[in-house]
Give the backbone structure.
Amino acid sequence: MLDLLEKKTDVITEDTEYGKMVVSVNGISQDASANLWWTYTINGEYAALGAEAQVLNDGDVIQWILTEF
């Protein structure tokens, strides 16, 4: 799924021990000091996998959200 995001937006990722982490989408960056992180949902449910490992099905609706934890 990460490849789709990279094709459709201006995205910046960082390599982590868990895989690639999305840190900026279209110039909007996560902010660790404010505890804001990029997350995503598929069909209204938070995804259990990182974007790099997530497989999509036809008709899936993906939403990227800057989320406070």
Q: What stands out?
A: The chain has a mean pLDDT of 95. The CA atoms of residues 47 and 56 lie 11 Å apart.
